[in-house]
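F.,

This is the one I mentioned.
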């Protein structure tokens, strides 16, 4: 597994406002959208392309286009949904699958309540979107599901990661073709499994408290 922390002043600036507890939901959603576009630029560095010949108004030339099979973008509901538009803006040909996952806040165990995507992902590049990599339980389960379906190139785009979650991912996904792109690896997890300093509950801050 590879991890790439995007070190850029615009990313740091937007992330700081996202973390601020005074930031309201509409602003939070807008910033998450803008941030994911900046992260997506790095995350798609190895997106597969193929050569194409075109005519400019002046001459014939060779360029590239995104190749087939199309990449698959998979937001993990709920909070990952707030990253979808920003991602597909950069990857307009992508297909979109959905994974609904919830972390039990007392046991911190992740479970899946919905999955809609092709059963066969052989040869597909997959981009998983989830703002938070905390204990890593959610992302490890999601990535294992993609590998089970045959994906051979998986990139997880997360806004924030905890060192504990990164370590679990490295252990559980050793030797797998996985890259994590994030705006920050924070200090630690607290006793409730929340990232410190973090930004709180990403889903609640985007959409309100679910229960
Ligand atoms: O790394 P982990 O410890 O597994 O935690 C991270 C997960 O927790 C949050 O989802 P949550 O369960 O709150 O669902 P929600 O997006 O519907 O709020 C977050 O969006 C991740 O999916
Ligand atoms: O800090 C955290 C940890 C898990 N899920 C969140 O939304 N935030
Ligand atoms: Mg939540």
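My design for it:
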């Amino acid at each position: 597994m590879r991890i790439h922390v995007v070190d850029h002043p615009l990313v740091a600036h937007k992330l700081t406002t996202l973390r601020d507890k005074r930031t309201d939901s509409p602003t939070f959603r807008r910033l998450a959208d803008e941030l994911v576009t900046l992260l997506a630029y790095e995350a798609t560095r190895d997106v597969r392309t193929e050569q194409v010949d075109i005519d400019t108004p002046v001459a014939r030339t060779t360029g590239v286009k995104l190749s087939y099979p199309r990449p698959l973008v998979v937001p993990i509901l709920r909070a990952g949904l707030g990253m979808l538009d920003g991602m597909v803006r950069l990857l307009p040909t992508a297909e979109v699958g959905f994974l609904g996952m919830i972390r039990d806040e007392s046991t911190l165990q992740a479970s899946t309540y919905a999955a809609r995507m092709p059963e066969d992902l052989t040869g597909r590049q997959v981009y998983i979107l989830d703002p938070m990599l905390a204990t890593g339980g959610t992302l490890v389960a999601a990535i294992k599901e993609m590998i089970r379906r045959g994906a051979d190139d998986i990139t997880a785009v997360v806004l924030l990661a905890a060192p504990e979650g990164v370590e679990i991912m490295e252990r559980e996904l050793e030797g797998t073709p996985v890259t994590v792109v994030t705006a920050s690896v924070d200090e630690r997890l607290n006793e409730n499994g929340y990232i410190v300093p973090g930004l709180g509950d990403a889903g609640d801050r985007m959409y309100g408290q679910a229960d």
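The mean pLDDT is 96.

Talk soon.
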